[in-house]
Write a structure and sequence with these properties.
Layout lengths: L26 H6 L37 H30 L1 H6 L3 H34 L8 H23 L8 H4 L2 H13 L1 H23 L4 H7 L3
Amino acid sequence: MTPPTAPGDPTESPGEPETAPTHPDLTSDLEGGQDGAGGDGVLVDDPGFAPKEPTDGRQRGDWQTRYPEPEARRAILFEASYVFVVHCLTLIAMALTGTGWPQDWIGVTEPEWAKLSHWLLAWLGGMLGGSLFAMKWMYHSVAKGLWNRDRRLWRIFTPLLSAGVGLTVVVLSAARIIPIFGADLVGTNTGAVGVAILVGYFSDQTISKLADMAEGHLGRAGRRASRPGPDEQEATEPS
């Protein structure tokens, strides 16, 4: 497959549809319409991603920013600062939770704090993974010229969404509802945090997987409840 070429590249074949790169880290972005993707989930005018294309589609010596407008630069600085602050605050909150400092402030007993801190660390782990993903896409989209202001809500809510997904997967695993991660693994603080970080970083893939599992179980239950009779089944079966 011929990799996508930069706009104006003389090697670009006219009329040949541009295909999106299939970097494993970008599966959710390409399929789910994440940052850097068009409305149909296909990257637009993207020269490729590192390490395949570390030049961002630029010629040697081309160092000028793709966003010379002051308004765009202020917006980029705001979004980058937001993601960075969320990332740092998450790390601080995880450290404070691990030391047990909030226990006296909240006023709970030792056993109660052990349970509460476990789920809190899982939530923070998901947020850490989500902030890492948002941070990666922030510099990718700016460097590739794919940044736009309409993705601001995505960058704001991605860490929060990842935190919720991370906690959800840890709870479902601890309850042995889903077989993705073992209950013994997520029963420890380090295991819960590790799983939540992984799930938070790949929250889109996780949501898709959970949706497939839910449709499989709920779909089978629905079909079992409304199973057609012999006459209906014969009428609907292809010959």
